[in-house]
């Protein structure tokens, strides 16, 4: 069964600190993995997209890594800011598939405290 | 550039009532999707469309209908609302399907409560 599991479910850190969010997946055949940021009351917004051949991609203070062999990804946030408070969703797509094969994780809720 | 616009933003219905959620995108995307988001769960696909005049069932289609009469619009209908349909509904669009590395663009959701 295609699944995307994220950990932790929630995380609280102090402003300025770094953190790492985890994503494990069993989606097959793998096409790409995306990280989205969802602010409270808003829709998800894409942060990064990685394909099978990419193992690192950055977007400002956000760095995503992918290990396709172990089917794991992480999102590292550097020097956190209050505006980073949001849910972060890992999304995995299967290759040559319909829209029904885009699998969403349940997200990690990150809170940044001043 | 508005992106994806959903209307209404909030709605409260009584069991058995019907309503239509509207989604409009101005990016000329072929693919459009309707998802529901419930606490502790990932977004689940209700229906999707790969182009004007087409629709297809997703993971949780029961109790919903959709129409894509124009490329820029995707409508989600509830014919007889049930409390289990209380959720936040998100519309999304994309240039291609999930496997072509194009991101989905989401609206800000419709918060629907069924009493």
Describe what is shown at a glance:
The complex is a heterodimer of chains A (114) and B (115). With 114 residues, chain A is an all-beta fold.
Please tell me about this protein's structure.
The complex is a heterodimer of chains A (114) and B (115). Chain A is mostly beta strands and 114 residues long. Chain A is built from no helices and eleven strands. The model of chain A has no long low-confidence stretch (mean pLDDT 93). With 115 residues, chain B is mainly β. In chain B, strands 2, 4, 5, 6, 9, 10 and 11 form a seven-stranded mixed beta sheet that branches. Chain B has a four-stranded antiparallel beta sheet with strand order 1-3-8-7, with no helix packed on it. Chain B is globular. In chain B, 37% of the residues are buried. The interface between A and B is medium-sized, with 28 and 29 residues.
* Biggest interface: A-B, 28 and 29 residues
Please give the largest β-sheet of chain B: 7 strands, mixed
- Provide mean pLDDT of chain A, rounded: 93
Number of helices, counting only DSSP H or I runs of 4 residues or more of chain A: 0
Order of helices and strands of chain A: EEEEEEEEEEE
Task: Itemize the secondary structure elements and their pairings.
The complex is a heterodimer of chains A (114) and B (115).
Chain A: E1 4-7, E2 10-14, E3 19-25, E4 30-38, E5 45-51, E6 56-59, E7 62-67, E8 72-77, E9 86-94, E10 102-104, E11 108-113
Parallel strand pairs in A: 2-11
Antiparallel strand pairs in A: 1-3, 3-8, 4-5, 4-9, 6-7, 7-8, 9-10, 9-11
Chain B: E1 4-7, E2 10-13, E3 19-25, E4 31-37, E5 44-49, E6 56-57, E7 64-67, E8 73-78, E9 87-94, E10 105-106, E11 110-114
Parallel strand pairs in B: 2-11
Antiparallel strand pairs in B: 1-3, 3-8, 4-5, 4-9, 5-6, 7-8, 9-10, 9-11
